[in-house]
Amino acid sequence: MIESHGTPHMEAKPVEFPCQGPGCSESVITYLTDEDVEAHETIQVRRYTPESDDEHVARYLFCSSDCRATFVNAVESGEREETIYGDSE
Q: 26 near 65, Cβ under 8 Å?
């Protein structure tokens, strides 16, 4: 959760994130609203954190459906340690 220091009347500022597609150097720009994030290629994963010996859910953003599919393939083949959370479609 990102704490907001603005008011509802202030214009939202876009935030840039690296695309989570394996080997992709593109970035994803989002306004961090639920509608905006849903408009991008996203996926939720369970990611293991060795430091806390626990898993937590993270949402990854992708610049294209191809990058998302490449990520899903990497997870399903065991190359990535994440577990897809919920529906992967």
A: no
The residues pairing with 18 across neighbouring beta strands, listed in sequence order, are 27
Residue with tokens 């509802």: 8
Residue 53 zone, left/alpha/beta (φ > 0; ψ -120 to 50; rest): left
Mean pLDDT by 10 residues, the chain (89 residues): 60 88 94 88 86 83 95 93 75
Identify the DSSP state of 73.
H
pTM: 0.74
DSSP notation for 19-68: --STT---EEEE---HHHHHHSEEEEEEEEETTTTEEEEEEEEESSHHHH
Rounded Cα distance between 88 and 62, Å, is: 13
- Which tokens belong to 81? 């340690």
Closest among 49, 65, 66 to 57, alpha carbons compared: 49
